[in-house]
What does this fold into?
Amino acid sequence: MSVKRGANPAGQIQKTVTRRDFLRGTTLGAASLAFGVPVAAKTFQELRATYPVAQTARVVLVRDADVLNSHGECNPEVLARMLDEAVTALFDTDDVAAAWQQIFKPEDVLGIKSNVWPPLPTPPELEKTLHQRALDAGIPDAKISIADRGILDDPVFQKATALINARPLRTHHWSGIGGCLKNYIMFVREPWQWHDDACADLGGLWHLPVCRGKTRLNVLVVLTPLFHGIGPHHYDPQYVWPYKGLLVGTDPVALDAIGVKLLAEKRQRFFDRPPRGGTSSQHVQLAETRHGVGVADLDRIEIVRLGWLDGALI
It folds into this structure.
């Protein structure tokens, strides 16, 4: 297994895939060549039609009061148990091994897309658990990689047949929230090209050949979510709280929609008056209505709640 934190891309590609490429109807033939993935040239609109949005989605919320101690340190055994409980509930089985076998196959090449933002990274304990579950399912260690930046140059990600998407939930200056959809922005060489209009078209990233149809599981970490921020890269510990949970599902849009709701509910309770400003999280709705990636309508999302429910807010 390789683990890369904060690596910078080593090389350049001849074609940079930007948000504008999608919006002006550029074919993805050139984009696929940029990633070394041969596909028939299709317009973005044709690709969106190929992946119709599901009518409903299931999201599992699991919480445990003991997953963090008084210093905010994570208990790896409790976290692993939470993840197993969430996965079994997601796939309607009591058999932990059988649930994970629905996600991984021994022949898979697995990229685990984490997040290295220093104030609130993907917990190493979660990365280790996901790695171990992949090993338990029969994937060789050499065919597993955990990375964030530099994934386009990672040989495992380049050959990946399966992806796991795992990152913490937080507010974000450009996109409203940093969630599952936003976490795939490192699948392009120039992420800032996707910041226009409050990152409206982040859903388009999920149609890129390098990741389209490969994501087996999304884990939105809500152990200590960041519910308010001011400006780029802002972090203030007064705006996090020990929620002690994980949101787990196969639909990244549904997870982010629940995440938007959770942060909004916390802000409403924390502030006497709603703070001015802030960026719209419109990209979550547009990921359904414009990009066909998943379900953003809360009325069509089933939430399965497990464990500690005090102060769940959703």
The radius of gyration is 19 Å. The longest strand covers residues 215-226. Residues 8-15, 24-42 have pLDDT under 50 and may be disordered.
